[in-house]
Amino acid sequence: MDCVFCKIIDGEIPSKIIYEDEDVIAFDDVDPQAPIHFLVIPKKHIKSLDELSESDSSLIGKIFLTIKMIAREKGIAENGYRVVHNIGEDGGQSVAHMHFHVLGGRSLQWPPG
Ligand code: AMP
Q: Which intervals hold domain HIT (predicted)?
């Protein structure tokens, strides 16, 4: 499958991996939009949450607990941070492998463009 994030999971494309277990991997975004900007993704190729099924419910829980753990480790939990999941064309999704952006380390504006 021609998926850049599957290639990161397989080690075919280098990345700055922050955390990895049998289900989930987290790595720095190559084009950071904040002092801290990493992505948390499932190893299973799922396009977006629009393609989730009941059997993925524990995987989603694990992704969010991973976000919490890394945010604390990186010291952004106290001041706060943002989790973003872009879905499809209008959502601004450019990589068709479900990923959660985690942005922190500065005050973020709202609303997004
Ligand atoms: P989205 O636009 O929500 O689909 O986000 C895709 C994100 O993946 C962007 O923030 C990109 O900078 C990031 N990205 C694309 N290729 C890589 C890569 N090889 N390593 C790390 N991040 C990447």
A: 4-113
